[in-house]
Amino acid sequence: MSDQPGTNKINKQADLLVVNHLKKYFPVKTGVLKRVSGHLLAVDDVSFSVKSGETLGLVGESGCGKTTIGRTILRLTEPTAGSVNFDGKEVFDLKGDALKALRRDMQIIFQDPYASLDPRLRIGNSVMEGLEIHKIGNKQDRYQMAVDMLKKVGLEDYHSRRYPHEFSGGQRQRIGIARALTLKPRFIVCDEPVSALDVSIQSQVLNILKDLQDEFGLTYLFIAHNLGVVEHISNRVAVMYLGKMVELADRDELFRSPLHPYTQALMSAIPIPNPKLKRERIILKGDVPSPLNPPTGCRFHPRCPIAVAECALKEPPFVEKKPGHSVACWLA
Ligand code: SF4
User: In a 3-state reduction of DSSP, which class is residue 23?
Assistant: First the structure.
């Protein structure tokens, strides 16, 4: 048949991915000569790890750098500085066949799967594209593997013969998941996979991701702008603000006692299903500042409801305040 790898073994203790001091600055070019006039600090010195078999939720407002982190880890964009180690391999040192092999192990699910599907290609052919690139099995094997994967995400045989425009948003996201999974990767960046879907469909897609994680031993970096979404799928949650990680903790610990004022504000915006219970909403003043010219000191200080004078002068370090619970705030 094929040389497709088997189900991944889960070692819940070991770090599968270690990100160290990652930076990604995009040059800003202006004028007729397109001279570099500044840099957009999309990701600015971020470190974290993801254990094998776990889901790390990465949350923050649009433009905070979370998607850039996901894309840089996968080498879809090159880093400015820092390192990413995946299962003992330095990702940024890999080239040629070694990089190709890594791409088989690390996949991505996009927010808008429609944009990554060729409208002229039947879904079965789209789903088997990765298998073709990696020369796995013959054409018939590949098609069968694509159909099998479509069934795993709740679609039927006949869907493989249809075109992308014939599917709903939720079905397209299932196709996006099937595409990412055909190569049996070990690690998947889920980049806002349910943000564009109706709430009723969101939970179906999250359940599929959870079931597939159990079946294949997958490790997820789950990116979302909504804390409510990551709560359901994450083991640990990291909060980003303007290119920096500001808090990281186990899911239950973070939701029980958030330490950073930004996390507290995000949490106050999560709707409570019980109409008898009320949560006081923390409204942050102003908009997120530009990552082209971030504020001095703590980047959150212009919007922080409890800022003191020191906050504008000195950047708070990201430190562990309780076991497994780190935060960057002078007052936490
Ligand atoms: Fe607010 Fe200061 Fe803490 Fe930053 S360091 S979050 S400005 S209190």
Answer: strand
